[in-house]
Design a protein that fits this description.
It comes from Rhizobium paknamense. Keywords: Cell membrane, Membrane, Transmembrane, Transmembrane helix. This is Drug/metabolite transporter (DMT)-like permease. Its main location: membrane. The protein is mainly α. The chain has one domain (about 1-290). Helix content is about 80%, strand content about 0%. It is built from 12 helices and no strands. Helix 2 (about 30-65) packs antiparallel against helix 3 (about 65-85).
Amino acid sequence: MPARAYAYLILTTLLWGGNAVAGKLAVGHVSPMFLNLVRWMLAFLAVLAVSLPQIRADWPLLRRHWLLLLALGAIGFTAFNGFLYSAVQYTSVVNAVIEQGGVPVVIFLLNFLLFRVPVSALQIIGFSISFVGVAITAGHGDLKSLLSLTLNFGDLLMLLGVLCYSVYTVALRFKPPVHWKSLMAATALGAILAGIPLLVFEAAAGRMVTPDGFGLLLILYTGLLPALVSQILYIRGVDIIGPNRAGLFVNLVPVFGTILSVLLVGEDLHLFHVVALTLVLGGIAIAELGKGRRT
């Protein structure tokens, strides 16, 4: 079972790395809130097409927990991605993905403060090693260069997004025992409802950009893969190994984001990329050796 969770979570973070790159590529082709709303509408319609019988079966539980489910979608889907797509308007993809590396530590802190979930020494060591790999990615192989990184408005937005996704991950412990199809449909609906006023605000401010051809391709990618497939895989990963251990895999996002930049944008692959990936994966392995009960 854990091996399956690892595969789910690695693929999830690969798609999330692509999501950050897509957000940057979207600048000038589709505005952040338009992209965010339409992608969740696409994801909702896709999951609805295959989940109506399951939704009917789970309807009593869905109706009983409707507020929680809509809130999960609003916070984990719309708020996080809204902050991400807005952040890369003002800061670099590197800054955005390195800041996503803060998700695991926030999850650890929230679980400890709210539920007194213990953390082993090996988990702390593993997280620290993984974060060094993340830092190497951010510094392009030169840790001293991190001292020159400055936080701007985009970085602040990304940190708010980190908080949102951490809260979402921890709150998944309260989700009702419904099928993943029903869960995705309900949370995607929450994302849509939360995204509508944000798009209205964007349009009223004169910042809405309707998609061109390339923008439509980005909507298709982000709606079907990062929005739908990755969230399903992430939920399953959290179910299997718990939020603390699953959250640690978020440290792969900056590594994959960098690799995708190499493949899609034509940037050079350097030795520090390989070193960073090794450290991140090694840190995850060490943290897994120190796992206790499901957290």
